[in-house]
Design goal:
Chorismate lyase, single chain, 28% helix, alpha+beta, elongated, 6-stranded antiparallel beta sheet, 2 domains
Length: 251
């Protein structure tokens, strides 16, 4: 029997937690792409065809296709159509996203391992970055994130305990620090620096990469209102990730 499935059948076969329709459509499309049923450069059904096939609104289809395009899964050419993009895993360069959501959007399973979660005394530079006095207490976590059991991000994070006093009590194998901090102190501003870096032997072992393999590093600092919430160093294996960003003129 052929395992070729329509998008409708694929969506129905997925195990969904309560999720918006557009997210279910996205997951179904990603599953077809990841399974190889939808091949790179293949033209995908139009918005009208998907509305007819799935019985959902055009707004739902438009949002799903728009987000999949911005995430690098699809390529939309005006007047030509929408196509499956040539791609590898990505992380958004100009936005702050939850890595668990990024992985789920590809139809994959996220897992994490907490290497440590502790309180520390802040050194001069760390204290300055978090807006704390030198020697003050800060919270420090180090977590490895997995995509289908493959390590894809090493997260080293320092947190302002004045903004997130319950940080050390969380189970970050069930919820990412980003997701929890977003609830406690919603992001109002952020900055980050992206660069290619070499890694230590310990980092290579954690990410399961060979010596000499480059890594992409994001150093990110975020604010809630006037207070710095967290400083994070996010390390990605360069061969498994690309950075993606979109720019729009204000003129």
């Amino acid at each position: 029997m052929s395992d070729h499935k329509t998008l409708t059948e694929t969506i129905a076969s997925l195990s969904h937690e309560p999720a918006p329709l557009y997210q279910q459509v996205k997951q179904g499309i990603v599953t077809l792409i990841r399974s190889g049923q939808w091949q790179p450069r293949q033209r995908v059904p139009s918005e009208s065809e998907l509305v007819s096939e799935l019985g959902v609104s055009r707004m739902t289809i438009n949002r799903a296709l728009r987000e999949l395009t911005s995430e690098g899964f699809l390529l939309r050419l005006q007047g030509v159509g929408t196509f499956v993009a040539e791609m590898k895993a990505f992380t958004p360069m100009l936005e702050v996203h939850n890595i668990a959501d990024e992985i789920a959007s590809r139809g994959h399973r996220h897992a994490s391992e907490v290497l440590f979660l502790r309180a520390e005394r802040a050194g001069v530079n760390d204290a300055r970055a978090l807006g704390l006095p030198p020697g003050a207490t800060l919270f420090h976590s180090r977590i490895i994130h997995f995509d289908n059991q493959v390590p894809v991000q090493l997260e080293d994070r320092q947190v302002n305990p004045l903004i997130a006093p319950d940080y050390l009590q969380q189970d970050f194998t069930k919820l990412t620090p980003h997701a929890w901090l977003t609830r406690v102190a919603p992001l109002t501003a952020g900055e980050h620096v992206v660069e290619a870096v070499s890694t230590s032997e310990e980092e290579r072992q954690l990410l399961q990469i060979s010596a000499g393999e480059p890594c992409l590093q994001i150093q990110r600092r975020t604010w809630h209102q006037q207070s710095v919430v967290t400083c994070a160093r996010l390390l990605y294996p360069g061969a498994r990730y690309k950075m993606f960003g979109r720019f729009q003129s204000s003129s």
